[in-house]
Structure formats: C-alpha cells, structure tokens
Amino acid sequence: MIYLRSTSVILLFILSVSATVFHHGWANYDQTKVLDFETTIDESTFENPHTMAKVIYEKEPWEVYLAPASRMTARGLSAEMIKKGTKVRLVAYPHKTEKGEMRAERIYVDGKKYELR
C-alpha cells in the first residue's frame, strides 16, 4: 500500500513538472513589441488550457492565445462574446520564433476592457 502511494505521488510530481516545462509561457513572447489593433474574430475556441482566436493582423492570419476559459469567465467574458464575426481590439505580444502567433494581454469587446493575465 505504501509503495502504491509513493508511486502515485512520484507520478503526479513528474506530470506536474512536465506540464510546467512544456507549457508555453510569457518568456516566448516579445513584450517589447506591443501589437495594439482592431480586428474581427474569424474563429475561436473557448476551452482550457487557453482560449484561442484566429484573426487577421496586417493582412495575415494569426493565432491569438487568450486566457484560460475559467479566467475569462471569471472576468466577465463568455464564449458568445468572442464568437466568429465579433469586432474586438487586442493588445498582444508576438511570439519570438513562431510566425503568426501572439498572446493577448487584454481584449476589448464592445469598448469594454478585459485584462487577461
């Protein structure tokens, strides 16, 4: 019984460390290059670990990482508010190496600001 409990604890620890190591963090995004623009949501996925949106920025398609769905909901954002066709303003940072990927710091929907970090 003790062996099983120890193995479970070790496995849980390894999984949590792996998730942290492989999770994309803020360090991968260039916070010296602020992208502040208005666009229309082309597609969105409202789920954990991150809500995603596809938009056009400077005539190119971009994937935008937003906050986890639970955080977005806690801050007053719903899936319906960022559905396809919604006009938004994004303040985001581009990925340092992945072209066409950014992470949003905040989003404005109907003129209201929502902090995502």
CATH class: Mainly Beta
In DSSP terms, counting alpha (H) and pi (I) runs of 4 or more, how many helices? 2
* CATH superfamily descriptor: Nucleic acid-binding proteins
Report low-confidence residues grouped into runs of 5 or more.
11-23
Mean pLDDT across all residues, rounded?
86
Specify Rg, calculated over alpha carbons: 17 Å
What's the number of domains? Answer: 1
Shape: globular
**What share of the residues does DSSP label as strand, in percent?**
35-45%
Number of strands: 7
Q: Examine the coordinates and then state which fold CATH places here, giving the name of the CATH topology.
A: OB fold (Dihydrolipoamide Acetyltransferase, E2P)
Structural class: alpha+beta
Oligomer: single chain
The arrangement of helices and strands along the chain is: HEEEEHEEE
Q: Give the % helix.
A: 10-25%
Keywords: Signal
Organism: Algoriphagus jejuensis
InterPro entries: DUF6152
Protein name: DUF6152 family protein
